[in-house]
Amino acid sequence: MNPELQLLISQEEIAQTVDGLARAINQDYRDQPLILVGILKGAFVFLADLMRQLQVPVQRVELIRLSSYGTRTRSSGTVQVLLDLPPQLLRHQPVLLVEDIVDTGLSTAKALQMLQQQQPASLRLCALLDKPARRQVPVHIDYLGCTVPDQFIVGYGIDWKEQYRHLPAIYTVQQLEADA
Ligand SMILES: O=P(O)(O)OC[C@H]1O[C@H](OP(=O)(O)OP(=O)(O)O)[C@H](O)[C@@H]1O
Ligand SMILES: Nc1nc2[nH]cnc2c(=O)[nH]1
User: What region holds the Phosphoribosyltransferase domain (predicted)?
Assistant: First the structure.
């Protein structure tokens, strides 16, 4: 049976939030050529909207793919790297990591560590959502959209068992069956 969804952040609120984030990034980077790195799959919708609001010269858009939730609603605690970057790509370049949600922080911390190994000129994080209640490792978010409560989130690229990524707004999921 499909679970019940409750609206948390409307399409209009998401658009305003993305706009505010893009304005802050535009102001900070100005004419600096920037590399954007998005984390698949969850961040692909946010990345697509954010980058189209950027006025800074985006010299490259890259994607990495991490997974730690699978079909569950709690992190497995192990972050699998399913797609990495070619070596040396970020060396001496300003890089902005784009993430959909920082929850335990394990995925984002792993991504930051992977990117840092390539010795970028600078590395900052832009996250649409922050769920601080479940943090296991500290993560500094340079550009944050919204803080969300300790509930399971779906929509706007974010899934439950691969469903709901297509929804244009963000919802909390009610009455989820216990994880298998
Ligand atoms: O802070 P954390 O507890 O690590 O959770 C955050 C991560 O969890 C989700 O990815 P998921 O592993 O579900 O993969 P997906 O993006 O492909 O759905 C989400 O897209 C984040 O990348
Ligand atoms: N779908 C979904 N994935 C997540 N990964 C980390 N937190 C969440 C969440 O609240 N919802």
Answer: 12-159
